[in-house]
Each structure stands twice: as structure tokens, then as C-alpha cells.
Amino acid sequence: MQVPGRAGVSLLGDESIEFYKTPREYLEKRRKTYGDVFLGRIINKRTVFLTSNKAVQSLLNDEWQHFSMGYKEFMYELFDDNVLFLEGDAWHSMRKSLESLFDHESVARCLEETKSVVEEFFRNFSTNEPVVVYKTFKLLATRLSIALFLSHHTSPEDSQVIAELMTLHWRGIISVPVNMRGPWSLWQSGYSKALSAKDRLKAIIADIIKSRPSAIASSIEACCTEDKEAGLRHLLLFVSALIPKAFASILTSLVLELSKPENARWRECSNDDSLLDNIVLEAQRLWPPFIGGRRVCTKDCVVAGYRIPEGMSVVYCAYLANRDSAVFSEPDSFKPERWSQQNAGDREKVWTFGGGPRQCIGRYLSTTLLREMLKKLLQNFTWEVVPEQDLRYKVLPVCRPKEDVMATFTRTSSSSDSS
């Protein structure tokens, strides 16, 4: 069956501005017109969009190995060669080498390694005065990322420099990929600044891991004994702002959802890890940090009954697939209880961390850290969102409130007594 929709003609038919300006409206309007799978034109490329849970599952499982990761042409210059861009035997080999870094035993060590980072952050956490929720948790996530993937002993000064460079580097992902500099480097395009930040980040990473690297940094180096530069490239990917932004996004959504009166009962679950896991999963389902992902078809195939020709770009929309009413009743409602009731067998149908053989390698580490940070929050603080704020979300480039939503955190009496 041919994919419905229209892709227009080159340049004139491009819909990139509409998609990036109002992505949810763009997707929902076309889904209503054409169905769950439809054709469009983004970045002047004919693109198939998948919005149903079943179609996304079919793509990500990719049992026929007919798709490559679709990020290389946009992100390669910013990250250089790493596991995200590898294909075939090279990818299988590197994935196998890295998997042991994120198994249950390794995650337990990571929790111990980062425990003091989290405790110090919350010990000095600003209370009784409103703070910007997303920015606050991005700071925590950045410190965690540095401790996990570089060194727990990174100085505050180096951490600050790394955080600033991470931000510059991230902006390259959402900039027009034009590397331009003015005379004597008095002016640089955003993309050019991002490339400069990449080089400085790699130099700092190389310097830090010479002395007291984290367990993950040491293991990645050990995987790349024949190519030390490859180790730096993998660490650059893990240290990049993608991870702190994802953590900050989910933690912000958790704080906002749990501040609602109808969700008050879930704030009493700090000692039940299984319930905390369900709460975190529900926030990931409703508010995935990134709207979806991209693939490129390498051989003619069929996905969800539709013919996809070789060379076609395919975008899967985790945001909509996670809210598919065919799988989730009351799909737009925050209902952690669904994971122990009607959706108990559907945990693998949440596509926040991708799925199938190319699923995010750090998924278990991420969800475990999020659970532990939420537990720390619930055990030590109460909070209220400042009233009369705009709580509407944007979903690009990161899913979070459109405005700098503020909340006031108050330390509990039991927390004060113990400190």
C-alpha cells in the first residue's frame, strides 16, 4: 500500500518551518487527514511519518535490517564517528563491548559513584524561594553526567566550563549547519561556535580522564585500546547536553505532574521502588524529552502495511505513539496505576528511549537514576508550583514548559532533623 499524503516539490513544498514552529499541530492535522502513517517534506526531503504505536514498533524492531540511523548527515560533524553512527558488524561489535557498562551490576556501582553528587546538590538546594524548575534540574543532570562519564573528582571550575561548552555544542544541533567565521574570528555562526566547543570539550575530556576517570570512562577507554581517539568520541556523545536535557525534561514533568492535587497520593510512594518506577515510566510516556527519532530506508520494505522505498527518510513520533488510544486508555492522563493494571504488559511500548536493537544503551541507567532522584525529592521536600503561570508545553527541541515555570521547594522536618 502506498503511503498517503503529499510531499510537494523540492524547496517549494518544504514544510520544515511549519513542523518546527508547531510540531504537534503539524502532526495531528496530517494524521487526522491521512491516518497514522503519512508523507511530508522536511528539510527538503520526502519523509514518511509514523505516529501509531504499532507502526513505530514495526520500524524500531527492524527485523529485516532495512534501516540505518538517520542522524549521521545532520550530526556527524558535531560528534565525529561514534557508536550512534556505526552500522553493521562495526556497530554490533561496539554495542556488545559497551553493554556491560550499563548492566544491573554496573548501574549499582554508578549509583554509589554519584550518590555524593546528588546528596551535595540537595543539601545546598535553594528552598523557600521560587526556582526555575527545568534550569535547576538541568544543573543537577549536568553534574551527574560529568561525574558518571568523566570523573567524580572534576573541579567546580572545570564543571562550569564543561557545562557552558555543552550548551554551545548543543546549539549546533539546532543551528543551520553553516561553518562561518568573520575576519580574525570576531564573528562566528552558531554552528561554527558548536564545532569550536566540540574541539575544546574533547581536549578537556582527554585531560580529565588522564588522572582519575570514572568507572564508565575507564571502561570505554579499555574498549578502544587500539584507537584512543575513538574513546574520546564516545565520551563526547555521553557527556553532551543531550543527556542532561533529557533528565531535566523528565524531572520537570514529574515535579509538575506530582504538584497537581489529583496526583497527591503518588507523593506518598517514596519507599516503594516499584511504584516509583511506574511514576517515572508514566512521565516518560506522557512527556518524552525528544519528540521522536529518524531512520533512513536502505532497502525497499513494508512497514505497518505501507511500502517504504530505498532512500526514504522516516520519522517516528514517540510523543504521539506513547499516547496511542489503541494501547493506552485515557492516553493524555497521568495514570501511573496503568502499569500495574491494564498496561502491565505494555512497558516495552513506550518509545521514549527508542526500541528494538538500537534502543538507547543507557536506558536502564537513566530510569534508575531518575527513580533515585525522585525518591530523594519526595523524601526530603514538598513543593508548590507558583500560581498563574503558563504551564503549556513545547516539544521541540526539548519537551518542556514553554516558559520558565517556577516552583517553591520546602525541606521536610524529617529531612531537616537528619541534616
TrEMBL record:
PROSITE patterns to which the protein is assigned, alphabetical: CYTOCHROME_P450
Keyword Signal among record annotations: no
InterPro entries per UniProt: Cyt_P450, Cyt_P450_CS, Cyt_P450_E_grp-IV, Cyt_P450_sf
Binding site for heme: C360
One GO BP: sterol metabolic process
Transmembrane annotation, as ranges: none
GO molecular function terms attached to this record: heme binding; iron ion binding; monooxygenase activity; oxidoreductase activity, acting on paired donors, with incorporation or reduction of molecular oxygen
Keywords annotated in UniProt: Heme, Iron, Metal-binding, Monooxygenase, Oxidoreductase
Coiled coil: none
Named cofactor requirement(s): heme
Keyword Methyltransferase: no
Family: Belongs to the cytochrome P450 family.
Protein name in the entry: Cytochrome P450 120
Protein source organism: Geodia barretti (Barrett's horny sponge)
